[in-house]
Amino acid sequence: MGLNFSIISSGSSGNCSILWNEKTAILIDCGCSAKYLCRQLKNLNVNTKKLYSVITHAHIDHISLSGINFLQKNQIPVYINKNIFQDIFKKYEQKIKNCLCINYDKNFKIDNIVVNSFDAYHKDNNISRTCGFTFFSKVKKRSYKIGYVTDTGKICNNIIKTLANSNILVIESNYNKQLLENSFRPYENKQWILSDFGHLSNEDTAKAIIEIKRLSTVKDNLKYVFLAHISKHHNTYELAKNTVNKILLNNKITGINLLVAKRESKSPTIRID
Ligand SMILES: [Zn+2]
Fold first, then answer.
1. Which of 13, 91, 137, 198 could form a disulfide with 193 if both were Cys (CB 3.0 to 4.6 A apart)?
2. Domains of the chain
3. Sign of dihedral through CA atoms 7, 15, 77, 145?
4. Which helix (H) or strand (E) holds 53?
5. How far is the CA of 59 from the centre of ligand 1 (A)?
6. pLDDT digits (tens, 9 = 90+) for 121-178
7. What is the whole-number distance in angstroms between the Cα of residue 151 and the centre of ligand 1?
């Protein structure tokens, strides 16, 4: 078995992805219900005994009470940055155990997968910090990279550099500007979404993909891009995909399989073997 990746759910109703190989499996966020997650893990044939988890930030759609209960019940080790642990602790108090503290921009290993976390731009009154991740795993002596950033108000040069040379990239494509401006949300909430600490628009995402591709030293390394965390109210799956696709083509970026991560169903599994 090589390296496998699937997005179990993506969006404001719950975020959870999984990558796994023959030895280990890592859940990225645990914001969906335990019942749904158990069903999907069974479908994917992933044993909870070999599971680890990492958490991007403390918003409820990334770590829900049901998700925490699942992690505790199955004694799944949780790798988490110190500030993010504090945000989660404030919310759920003693609920979260089996935690292992990690540092930003410092590689660590979960079994035979190398993981790195980096700072993203996403905070509000309830959370102090958010991170993205990169994962490296070897398949037949060749190293493969998965880049992951789902909640960020902007993409800086450091994030571009960190995500360059990914083979699989997960990046949010949260909103369409016009739909957001016309939506029923309170003015303050719209301003936060638009800010450098909110979310990315479809256009922002396309620009980031172009920069990541341009900075990648290995030609055609980037094979799969998942557009994630697509808003139910300020975007549509088609609009996100069409907008990003059009901008990529206008910039002569080809050879990428552009996929849409959905709220209510698991994505296809990408297998590298
Ligand atoms: Zn968030």
1. 198
2. 3-272 (3.60.15.10)
3. positive
4. strand 51-54
5. 5
6. 999 999 999 999 999 999 998 999 999 999 999 999 999 999 999 999 999 999 999 9
7. 6
Q: How far apart are CA 46 and CA 74, in angstroms?
A: 13
pLDDT digits 0-9 by tens, 32-47: 999 999 999 999 999 8
How much distance in Å is there from the Cα of 80 to the middle of ligand 1? 16
* 254 Cα to the center of ligand 1, angstroms: 30
Cα separation, 42 vs 51, in Å, equals: 13
| Distance from the alpha carbon of residue 198 to the mean position of ligand 1, in angstroms | 8
- Ligand 1 centroid distance, CA of 22 (Å): 31
Sign of CA dihedral 198, 270, 208, 239: negative
Count CB neighbours of 195 within 10 A.
Answer: 15
149 alpha carbon – ligand 1 mean position (Å): 11
